[in-house]
Design goal:
Blueprint: H1 3-17, H2 22-25, H3 31-40, H4 47-51, H5 64-81, E1 85-86, H6 100-110, E2 114-115, H7 125-129, H8 138-148
Helix pairs in contact: 5-6, 5-8
């Protein structure tokens, strides 16, 4: 066997023996796409921690107020880059009225982005302010919104 074929054989053998990551094997995570999302620079919920979301409430990053503020942050970034009409593409996400996805959309609309929507699907103002949660977060939400303006 020539040196070239030996080298190719070694590479193939190593790739065959390498076990894929669990989430990749279960087809839950595409690490290539995930890296692309991280490099894209789009606003993420983690940005709220930098803006003053308290560490004690870090577990509430999936809440409706956190989703609303993330949408507001995204809206501000969209206004810096895009001028004109924007569309919402939620892909395969479940389309639940008054849910977190629509809280994000509400934040984008409140930031001033022109996007077609129906106000019936937005969560109530009480839920956006966090009154339904055990810890009342109205002051924090107002402070973070002021930082974004």
């Amino acid at each position: 066997m020539s040196k070239f074929f030996k080298r190719i054989y070694k590479v193939i053998k190593i790739k065959m023996l390498k076990t894929p990551k669990k989430r990749k094997k279960e087809k839950k995570t595409s690490y290539k796409k995930r890296l692309g999302f991280l490099k894209s620079g789009l606003s993420r919920i983690v940005d709220l921690l930098k803006l003053g979301w308290t560490k004690e409430k870090k577990g509430t990053l999936k809440s409706i107020p956190a989703s609303y503020l993330t949408g507001y942050l995204m809206g501000k970034k969209i206004l810096e880059k895009e001028k004109g009409k924007v569309i919402l593409d939620i892909g395969l996400q479940r389309n639940i009225s008054k849910g977190r996805i629509y809280a994000v959309l509400n934040g984008i609309v409140d930031a001033g982005v022109d996007i077609s929507h129906n106000k019936k699907v937005f969560p109530s103002e009480e839920r956006i302010q966090g009154k339904h949660l055990k810890t009342n977060m109205q002051k924090e939400i107002i402070e973070i919104k002021k930082k974004l303006k």
